[in-house]
Every structure is written in structure tokens, then in C-alpha cells.
TrEMBL record:
Ranges in coiled-coil conformation: none
Gene Ontology MF terms: methyltransferase activity
Active site, renumbered: C369 (nucleophile)
Pfam families in alphabetical order: Methyltr_RsmB-F
Family: Belongs to the class I-like SAM-binding methyltransferase superfamily. RsmB/NOP family.
Lineage of origin: Bacteria, Pseudomonadati, Pseudomonadota, Gammaproteobacteria, Alteromonadales
Domain SAM-dependent MTase RsmB/NOP-type residue range list: 156-427
Protein's UniProt name: RsmB/NOP family class I SAM-dependent RNA methyltransferase
Entries under InterPro entries matching the protein: MeTrfase_RsmB-F_NOP2_cat, MeTrfase_RsmB-F_NOP2_dom, RCMT, SAM-dependent_MTases_sf
């Protein structure tokens, strides 16, 4: 073996081991690879990049690659998949890709692939008469859960196979000044759709080395997620409850929007069932300088806050997270169809309980990072049938400018995750 082939074989052993561990344990790939790098210090920056990007690439194209693995039983089949992944994604390490081809006893040639369609054609040419299609890149069960009027099937598949950029939000300073500082630190930042939105591109960034982040002026938050705060549209002086706050991305956005709206004192109460997530939120709030956020954790099924006491309540409900499949391609294959209906039961319960905290004329916002009707429209419709004191409001889609009562952000509309949001008003 040449030195390059030895390195390629070492990478292959590591990547395949991690891949198998993820499928066996059903753990999130981000978590598995982070644990591996913490425990294994021998890898340099380039090694880590090759391992990480190839691993995620395997999941991104697994709908195709699993068919090739099933047809071959020898060990070289696994290495062939690494070679194909590197070619489909045009990874910048052709020496390793060529070595993988050699180790797999496969002919190597540099492919020029710039889209999922081009990758599909390349595979069809390389492995005829087997037929590869774009539809194979997502589980068959997905389509029955999308809205009946949805017609952008190919656009959705393409977007799920492309990594989204790092979206961020600026708080407590002007975006122009923030971008100037980022550019001075050689970080390519461009203005996003909203006044406080920034696109940080696709390169990995060590946030701890970014002064804006350390000082609390920069928060990473996907663009689709930022839509939720914009639909909430909190006003200065209002009192809001984030009923499923998690680590607080949307909580901090609400605080920032309130501060932008005026100098009147506002208040946000946050709740979650996970103490670690709420602790992280408080740490982020302290870093940003927001001192108007207090905690009221869920202890049981009883409301952790006073009823009829909030101008606005945000229910960013736990969900199947199908809208984040492009960011987490492993979940596309780890999740089973049952995750949709399982989440829906919990969502209905949380929305019913949280609604009691909305005062008359107040706002109730329901959101998920899913794109299924079961977890979104059906949840809201069921809720309205049981709660005539609420009515559904019309909102404007921030990217298409169309008026709608059920707002779904599709990943291909703004190079973001997928997200759903509905805004309700208590009228009695």
C-alpha cells in the first residue's frame, strides 16, 4: 500500500465504524461524531473534516448508496460507497477519493457533478442497467404526510440534499456595524432577509473565537426559525411565555425584537422539561445582557405559569424535526413513520395546556420544525374545534409575500430549514 492508501484505509475504518454505530444506537450523528472527536485526539483539522463530511455525505445519499451495498457482499463495497460519496459531493481531496476507488477495486475517474440530477445521471451511467431516481433519496412514507396541494416534490428533494448555510441573527447592535466586524475577522457575512439576519456561508466557524459571539451580539439561528419570532411580532411592554423554550434561540429573538420595538420594560417567562436546556438558555441570555427572562419549568401536567396572564404565548412544540433533514441527513433514515403520529399526540396536549395562559385579546403562536400536515394544520384545526375562544389570523409569507393562515417555510424557498407556524388570537 502507498502512504495515501494507508491513510484512506484508516479513514474508511473510522467512517464506517461511526456509520454503523449511528445506525445501531439510533443516536444523532452530530452527537456520535462529537463524542468520537472528544475521545480521539489524534486527528488534525483536515482529518476531522474528511471524516465528518464523508460521514454526513453517506447519509445524505444513502437512498442510492444502500442499493449498491445490498448488491455486494465483500468488504470493498463499503469503501466504494466512500468513493462515490466523495465524487457526488465533489470533496476537495481527490487523492483520498482515488485511493478509495483503488481499495474498492473500482475504476477511478474525476466526475464533474454540480447538482443532484447530475449525480443521478452519473450513477445511472456508471451502474447501468440499475435505475437511480431522485425519489429514492427520501423515505417513501414522507409524501402522504405533506399537504395535498404540495407540488414541488423535486425541489424539496434537491434542497434536502444540499447543506444549508449558517444563518445567524444580530442583537443589541446595528447589522452594518456587526458585518464590518465580521469582515475584519475574515468571516464572509452577507445580509439576510430580516433587518437583523446574517448569512455566514457554509464554512465551519469556531464561534468562541468570534468577538461578536462572545459579547452576545451574534446568535446562530436558522432563517426559518427566525420567521417564528417575526410572526410572533412581540411589542415593547408585553409579557410573553415561551412554553417549550429549549436552549432559547427563539426566546432571545423575542427579547431582541421587544427591545427593538421600544424602551418600555418587557418580560419573558420560559418553560421546558429539560433543566440542562434551560440552564443553557440562561447562560446565553446573560451573555447577551437580557435580564428580563425568568424561568418556570414544567414539573408535571399542571400549568407552570398563571392562567390568563400573557399577551403572547409561543408553543414551539417538540416534533419529528423533518424540516431539519437537510441539516441532519442521518435522521432521514433513522426515523420511522411512527415518529410523525407519536409527536402529534404530544403536540396536541402541549398546545391545549399552554393556551390557558393567554389572556383575552392575547396571541397564541404554534410552531414546529416539521412540514407534515399531521403535526401542523391538523393540530391547529383540532385545537380550534375545541376552543372557539380562539380564531386563526392571516399572516404574510416573508419570502413569497402570499397571505396564508397556515405558513409553511419550505427549505427550497430561502435556503433554510423547513418550518411551520400559525398565529391565533383569543377573542373571548
Amino acid at each position: 500500500m502507498t502512504p495515501v492508501e494507508k491513510r484512506a484505509l484508516s479513514y474508511a475504518t473510522t467512517i464506517n465504524g461511526l456509520f454503523d454505530e449511528i445506525f445501531t444506537s439510533k443516536k444523532n450523528a452530530d452527537r456520535v461524531i462529537a463524542e468520537y472527536f472528544r475521545a480521539t485526539k489524534k486527528h488534525g483539522a483536515k482529518d476531522r473534516r474528511i471524516i465528518r463530511e464523508t460521514l454526513f455525505g453517506l447519509f445524505r445519499w444513502w437512498g442510492w448508496l444502500q442499493q449498491l451495498q445490498a448488491e455486494q457482499t465483500d468488504s470493498s463495497a463499503r469503501t466504494l460507497l466512500l468513493y462515490l460519496t466523495s465524487q457526488i459531493e465533489q470533496h476537495p481531496w481527490p487523492d483520498i477519493a482515488e485511493a478509495w476507488a483503488t481499495l474498492a477495486d473500482s475504476q477511478y475517474y474525476a466526475a464533474e457533478i454540480d447538482s443532484p440530477q447530475a449525480a443521478c445521471q452519473w450513477l445511472n451511467n456508471s451502474f447501468a442497467p440499475r435505475l437511480f431516481t431522485l425519489e429514492q433519496l427520501v423515505p417513501d412514507w414522507l409524501w402522504q404526510y405533506l399537504p395535498a396541494e404540495f407540488s414541488a416534490k423535486e425541489a424539496l428533494i434537491e434542497s434536502l440534499c444540499q447543506r444549508p448555510p449558517i444563518w445567524a441573527r444580530i442583537q443589541r447592535m446595528h447589522r452594518t456595524d456587526a458585518m464590518a466586524q465580521l469582515h475584519a475577522n475574515e468571516i464572509a457575512a452577507t445580509a439576510g432577509h430580516f433587518d437583523d439576519t446574517i448569512n455566514l456561508g457554509h464554512k465551519s466557524i469556531n464561534l468562541q473565537q468570534v468577538p461578536l459571539y462572545r459579547d452576545g451580539h451574534l446568535e446562530v439561528q436558522d432563517l426559518a426559525s427566525q420567521v417564528i419570532g417575526q410572526i410572533c411580532a412581540p411589542k415593547a411592554g408585553e409579557r410573553w411565555w415561551d412554553a417549550c423554550c429549549g436552549a432559547g434561540g427563539k426566546t432571545l429573538q423575542l427579547a431582541s425584537l421587544m427591545e427593538q420595538a421600544g424602551p418600555v420594560a418587557s418580560e419573558i417567562v420560559v418553560s421546558d422539561v429539560r433543566p440542562a436546556a434551560m440552564a443553557e438558555l440562561q447562560k446565553r441570555a446573560q451573555r447577551a445582557g437580557f435580564n428580563n427572562i425568568s424561568s418556570a419549568p414544567w414539573q408535571n401536567e399542571q400549568l407552570p405559569v398563571d392562567a390568563d396572564s400573557f399577551d403572547g404565548v409561543l408553543v414551539d412544540a417538540p416534533c419529528s424535526c423533518i424540516g431539519t433533514w437537510r441539516r441532519n441527513p442521518d435522521q432521514r433514515w433513522l426515523d420511522e413513520e411512527t415518529v410523525v403520529n407519536h409527536s402529534a399526540e404530544l403536540q396536541q396536549q402541549i398546545l391545549q395546556r399552554a393556551a390557558a395562559a393567554v389572556k383575552p385579546a392575547g396571541v397564541l403562536v404554534y410552531a414546529t420544525c416539521s412540514i407534515t400536515v399531521t403535526e401542523n394544520q391538523q393540530i391547529v384545526e383540532n385545537f380550534l374545534q375545541q376552543h372557539p375562544e380562539f380564531t386563526l389570523e392571516t399572516v404574510i409569507h416573508p419570502f413569497t409575500k402570499s397571505a396564508t393562515q397556515y405558513l409553511t417555510i419550505w427549505p427550497f424557498e430561502a435556503d433554510s430549514d423547513g418550518m411551520f407556524v400559525a398565529r391565533l388570537r383569543r377573542v373571548a
